[in-house]
């Protein structure tokens, strides 16, 4: 995980035929409640991808939409009203489209382009996206008007990208790449980034959320009520990388480690137990859903995909074995409604 997001650099996607399990004439006001597996792929049909709802008990519902011969660019979010889901699709020729699918399975193009859909604005009128800049060496943060498709590139300091959006205001979380700071492992001869998180006010003011330079912090998400933020953290214990989930107040105070991926994996005979991408909060703010790759060997070769449900305040985590139980080998993103 030495890049901005492991899944951002995963294989890019293609799409041809689109079908809906709900039918073209079905009128449904809201998406079904549950966890959405965005860009899911199965062993049985590895060239297809779909967006599918799953209950918190692990029961799969019908596919909201399915794309043959392709996948979905990492990311994707459910609207605040719960009636649409935004994602980015790439054609076989590498041409991207930002799209919104409604509860009837109808997919509409919002704009051309490619990037990670990270959030809806609090009024559902805009989408937040970050993508590779034209120099292909950095990232830029973009806001897309859902109605018109018009893009606005945010003017941020170098090495910053905007991430999640507060559910009731224009405040954002922002990721500072911090490229000049590294956590080095001398014996292994490598290094980890030490990225940091900030709050980005509507006037462009940045305020640190994380302040420890010896930690790596990414993948931030506001709770549904906007009072807390969950994010990924990593630090070094000697030569060992320790990965964990953090929840803090919305201003960055009172950070609390709510789950330790590395320690949990080792305790369960899984030396490879690593999260992929940002978490999704349950609607009541009690639980985080996190994509995790697990393996009984300390390697990504042969890893299996899981969905991990982590209680924020108290309780035991629960594993949903997507690969073993549902033959789902990859998911580009998750969100919870």
What can you see in these coordinates?
- The two termini are 28 Å apart.
- 4% of the residues lie in helices and 49% in strands.
- It is globular, with a radius of gyration of 19 Å.
- It is built from two helices and 28 strands.
- The chain is mostly beta strands and 337 residues long.
- The strands form seven sheets. Strands 1, 2, 3, 4, 27 and 28 form a six-stranded antiparallel beta sheet that branches. Strands 5-6-7-8 form a four-stranded antiparallel beta sheet, with no helix packed on it. Strands 9-10-11-12 form a four-stranded antiparallel beta sheet, with no helix packed on it.
- Residues 1-28 have low confidence and may be disordered.
- A hairpin with a 5-residue loop joins strand 5 (77-78) and strand 6.
- The protein has helices at 261-267, 322-326, and strands at 18-19, 35-42, 49-54, 60-67, 77-78, 84-90, 96-102, 107-112, 116-120, 126-132, 139-145, 151-153, 160-165, 172-176, 182-185, 190-193, 196-200, 206-208, 216-222, 228-237, 240-249, 256-260, 272-281, 287-295, 304-311, 318-320, 328-330, 333-336.
- It has a single domain, classed as Neuraminidase (6 Propeller).
């Amino acid at each position: 995980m030495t890049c901005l997001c492991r899944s951002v650099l995963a294989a890019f996607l293609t799409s041809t035929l689109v079908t809906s399990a709900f039918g073209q004439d079905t009128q449904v006001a809201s998406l079904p409640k549950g966890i959405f597996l965005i860009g899911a792929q199965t062993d049985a049909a590895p060239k297809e991808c779909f967006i599918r709802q799953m209950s918190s008990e692990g029961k799969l519902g019908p596919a909201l939409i399915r794309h043959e011969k392709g996948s979905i660019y990492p990311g994707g979010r459910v609207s605040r009203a719960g009636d649409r889901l935004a994602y980015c699709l790439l054609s076989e020729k590498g041409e991207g489209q930002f799209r919104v699918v409604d509860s009837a399975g109808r997919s509409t193009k919002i704009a051309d382009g490619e990037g990670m859909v990270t959030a809806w604005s609090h009024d559902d009128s805009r989408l937040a996206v970050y993508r590779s800049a034209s120099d292909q060496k950095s990232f830029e943060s973009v806001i897309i008007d859902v109605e018109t498709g018009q893009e606005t590139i945010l003017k941020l300091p170098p090495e910053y990208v905007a991430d999640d959006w507060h559910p009731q205001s224009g405040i954002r979380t922002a990721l500072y790449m911090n490229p000049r700071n590294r956590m080095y492992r001398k014996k292994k001869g490598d290094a980890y980034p030490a990225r940091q998180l900030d709050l980005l006010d509507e006037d462009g003011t940045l305020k640190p959320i994380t302040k420890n330079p010896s930690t790596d912090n990414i993948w931030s998400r506001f709770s549904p009520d906007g009072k807390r933020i969950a994010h990924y953290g990593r630090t070094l214990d000697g030569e060992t990388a320790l990965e964990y989930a953090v929840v803090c107040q919305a201003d960055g105070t009172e950070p609390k480690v709510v789950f330790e991926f590395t320690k949990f994996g080792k305790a369960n005979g899984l030396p490879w137990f690593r999260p992929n991408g940002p978490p999704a909060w349950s609607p009541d703010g009690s639980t985080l859903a996190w994509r995790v790759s697990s393996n009984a060997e300390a390697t990504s070769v042969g890893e299996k995909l899981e969905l991990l449900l982590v209680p924020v305040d108290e309780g035991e985590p629960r594993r949903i074995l997507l690969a073993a139980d549902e033959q789902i080998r990859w998911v580009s993103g998750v969100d919870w409604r």
